[in-house]
Amino acid sequence: MKTLGSEEKKFLMESIRDVPDFPKPGILFKDITTLLNNPKAYNLLMEHLSERYAGMDLDYVAGIESRGFIFGAALAAKLGIGFVPVRKRGKLPYTTIGEKYALEYGVDEIEIHIDAFNNREGARVLLIDDLIATGGTAEAAAKLIKDARAECVEACFIINLTFLNGAEKLKGLAPVYHVLEVV
Ligand code: AMP
After folding, report:
1. Whether the model pTM is above 0.90
2. Separation of alpha carbons 42 and 33, rounded Å
3. pLDDT tens digits for 111-157?
4. Counting atoms of ligand 1 from 1, which one is nearest the CA of 64?
5. Does any ligand 1 atom lie closer than 6 A to the CB of residue 27?
6. pLDDT of residue 15
7. pLDDT digit string (tens) for 59-76?
8. Is the CB of 160 within 6 Å of ligand 1?
């Protein structure tokens, strides 16, 4: 399976803008809009992901709101499979199942439609988001996929803030793949 070379990784990393103190002091926000409006970077990334996942016999890509939609929907279309949005509570119109997760202060919840995977037991699902930090959001999303009786084949992130050990939260739920890491 193809992995990106160090020059390609460096190019992708440099296409992402660092915004200090957003959305609050002390957070270094990784702004992927500068990757998206750079056709060479966006195309390189999507080619890499479609090459990686073409042979995995996936049925769906599930993207986490909202930046996971951008990568997930493009990837699903490239692979010729369905896309499932994992949304914040209250956004989906039909019957949903939800999973709560802890925030720094309080709790949040994400949802999918009850028939998101067309009731296909054991459907092979790739979970995707732009970035994993503490891993709480991705853990809740992987649990939702399991609750829907589908299989989370892998959880994919464009960037992993590995110093926060978020991938630990996915142990036992899904293998984790990241394109880029911040150590
Ligand atoms: P977590 O649940 O802590 O892993 O947070 C992951 C979610 O928060 C993802 O949807 C990210 O888009 C967003 N996020 C967290 N930290 C950052 C950051 N430093 N830069 C950009 N997005 C972030």
Report:
1. yes
2. 10
3. 999 999 999 999 999 999 999 999 999 999 999 999 999 999 999 99
4. 10
5. yes
6. 98
7. 999 999 999 999 999 999
8. no
Q: Is the distance from the beta carbon of residue 64 to the nearest atom of ligand 1 less than 6 Å?
A: yes
Q: Is 104 a catalytic residue?
A: yes
- Look at residue 113 and tell me if it is in a domain: yes
Question: Is 67 known to be catalytic?
Answer: yes
What CATH number should be reported for the domain holding residue 111? 3.40.50.2020
Q: Which residues make Cβ contacts (< 8 Å) with residue 87, sequence separation at least 6?
A: 65, 110, 111, 112
Instruction: Please give the Cα distance from 13 to 75 (Å, whole number).
Output: 19
Residue 1: which pLDDT band, with cuts at 50, 70 and 90?
very low
User: Mutation test of ligand 1: which of 13, 131, 173 has the most ligand atoms closer than 8 Å to its C-beta?
Assistant: 131
Total number of domains constituting the chain: 1
